[in-house]
Write a structure and sequence with these properties.
5-stranded mixed sheet; two-stranded antiparallel sheet; 230 residues; binds iron/sulfur cluster; single chain
Length: 230
């Protein structure tokens, strides 16, 4: 069924069941997302996609709220843009976004002050290098949950990683802090593919960044030198 509603002052049609994010993107509107990924179930964790819906007391996450008849939606307003800017400023104050290219672009668009919360405690944890496929640097993790979702019901059904801890201590980890080879992980790499921040990185890329040559990495992987091609 087709529904009619108002988005940014214009009459808009959408299919029943579509989210405000889908309706906005169908019309070429730019609504930023971080935790949302086409391959995963939307959970509305980051709130960067919030929009203003007339009659609703608080801003609504466009990635899960469905368009409804007669709704009046603002995808950009002073309140919306201020909320997005604040979310980005909180992220910038608490974690390493140096390899989060899309988020850096958002930070420029929303004129983010990276020093707005100078007393914020940063997430700084040692890098985990415990398997041949990828490294985990949770100082760069914003808990978007994409990796957990593709490891579970959205793709691989492996359940090797999940949230651990509570409140400020919440992070992504394995059961009982086991190393990756001790878990059910099959090294499919799907988690690395959906990570938006570089917290999960292919081991080869990491070693190249550390200054190792491709040949040294090859020796490390195979335990022997590659034969020279003739
Ligand atoms: S490791 Fe990456 S994909 Fe997983 S929750 Fe953190 S930022 Fe998201
Ligand atoms: S993208 Fe909608 S809440 Fe994260």
């Amino acid at each position: 069924m087709t529904i009619i509603f108002i988005m940014d002052g214009e009459e808009t049609t959408s299919e029943e069941g579509k989210t405000l994010l889908e309706a906005a993107r169908d019309r070429g509107k730019d609504v930023p997302t971080i935790c949302f990924h086409d391959a995963t179930t939307a959970n509305a964790l980051c709130r960067i996609c919030v929009v203003e819906v007339e009659g609703m007391r608080v801003l609504q996450p466009a990635c899960i709220v469905q368009a409804a008849s007669n709704m009046k939606v603002q995808t950009h307003s002073e309140k919306v843009d201020r909320a997005r800017k604040t979310i980005l400023e909180m992220l910038a104050s608490t974690m390493d976004l140096s390899e989060a290219g899309e988020i850096q672009t958002m930070m420029n668009e929303y004129d983010v002050d990276v020093n707005r919360f100078p007393d914020a405690e940063r997430r700084e944890v040692p890098l985990k290098d415990d398997n041949p496929m990828y490294v985990r640097d949770y100082s760069k993790c914003l808990l978007c949950w994409r990796c957990v979702q593709v490891c579970a019901d959205d793709a691989q059904f492996t359940y090797a990683i999940n949230f651990t801890g509570r409140g400020y201590e919440t992070q992504i980890g394995t059961f009982f802090e086991k190393t990756i080879p001790e878990t059910t992980c099959v090294l499919c790499g799907q988690c690395v593919g959906v990570c938006p921040t570089g917290a999960l990185k292919p081991k080869r890329e990491y070693l190249l960044e550390q200054g190792m040559s491709p040949q040294e990495i090859s020796v490390l992987n195979t335990g022997r030198k590659r034969r020279k091609s003739t």
